[in-house]
Amino acid sequence: MLSSVKIKWLKSLSQKKVRKHEGLFVAEGEKIVNELLESPWEVLDVFALDSWDHVVIKGKNIRYQTISEKELERISSLTTPNKVLAVVRMPQYNILDVNLSNNITLLLEDIQDPGNLGTIIRTAEWFGITNIVCSMQSADIYNSKVIQATMGSFIRTRIYYAPIEEFLVNIPQSLPVMGALLDGDNIFEKDLPKQGILIIGNESRGISEATHRFITQKLYIPRAHENSNLPESLNASVATAIILAQICR
Amino acid sequence: MLSSVKIKWLKSLSQKKVRKHEGLFVAEGEKIVNELLESPWEVLDVFALDSWDHVVIKGKNIRYQTISEKELERISSLTTPNKVLAVVRMPQYNILDVNLSNNITLLLEDIQDPGNLGTIIRTAEWFGITNIVCSMQSADIYNSKVIQATMGSFIRTRIYYAPIEEFLVNIPQSLPVMGALLDGDNIFEKDLPKQGILIIGNESRGISEATHRFITQKLYIPRAHENSNLPESLNASVATAIILAQICR
What we know:
The structure is a homodimer of 249-residue chains.
Chain A: H1 4-12, H2 16-22, E1 24-28, H3 30-37, E2 43-48, E3 63-66, H4 69-75, E4 84-89, E5 104-108, H5 114-126, E6 131-134, H6 144-150, H7 153-156, E7 158-161, H8 164-169, E8 177-186, E9 196-200, H9 209-212, E10 217-220, H10 236-248
């Protein structure tokens, strides 16, 4: 049986400040937990139904506890809990260790919606992009909704949090910095660089004034008709996907 | 003051079966309600804060009621209610009236997530696509989360619900039917037709077996590396966006 202390602890990890303080987060569902167990990430605890195949943890130094469906429902953040829940240590990455000139690095400025952030990470991995820098005001990658929306891609990408200006001041001067802006060049009529930074702005405010000045290549996704009633922008994860497809095709 | 009967009625419209029975739905927020009022859609009731600019309803046959912030919070489905809420009549469109040979028609098979459905509609409009056919098991366009995610695009597109097989049996034989499948052709190495049907499958199951047989052009969005651990698919709204960008560029 799960003690009330343990339930309280697991629930407290749904708060960002507790996660940050403990350096731990919760991952849920058979697919994601199994992938974590096969990865270099450090899994500390596993709470699972009897029906979960626990062979994957044999011989590993992991605290393991069988729980009932009722207990899983109590500790799960999913609408439909899925067999297993794990407590995992956050890895520590340093953005200064990255060679930015090898590939595209995504720079996300204040992406707020967990679904968008997760979907962007999933899409980035699809196109072979593994370094993603988030501004300090972005949604937290270890929020359970973000974890779910990545469909496991957070395990194989490196997500850094950094003050955006400090990051941009310190990149190599020759590196192209792309950003989607309304007065940019049609992305379908240009050859886009395969190395550099791609900035995606906040869902409602777009890219901030302070960040604008770093952009060396303004990009625009052309729309079918110019009409004042048309939406002014695409969803942030959709815009990211269209630009990445165009860069990586 | 809002009567409890009215509050109950407004809340009941959050249920699909009530909406269907009454032929009415609720739209929220300044931008969307103002756009509806300037459109041919029939707005029956407006409930708004004093601070809402009600000039837009002058001379129109619309029931109008000023409400308090507390009342708006009670009837709103938004986390941050935004000044105004309207009750609107659903338009009746007939898919048989559409000339399918003029443009791309999106065919959505069981898209379940309201955010995905709304984002797909928003993206479709961006690329000039105005006819969207949803299978009967798709999320409901008049669900408040769908309405919000469209950012107003639902007003300027036509969304039809139809049994998918019945629809596909009756389209012109010469019309290309595209579908995203794992064994499809690389979309970046083909000229894609600018007229025809584009089928997008369910978030977890993809396109059903029964629908497969109608596909004349299998499409595939290539990923960077083949690796068994990579996600098997992209998010449905992301895949739609990448393919539409490639068709409409």
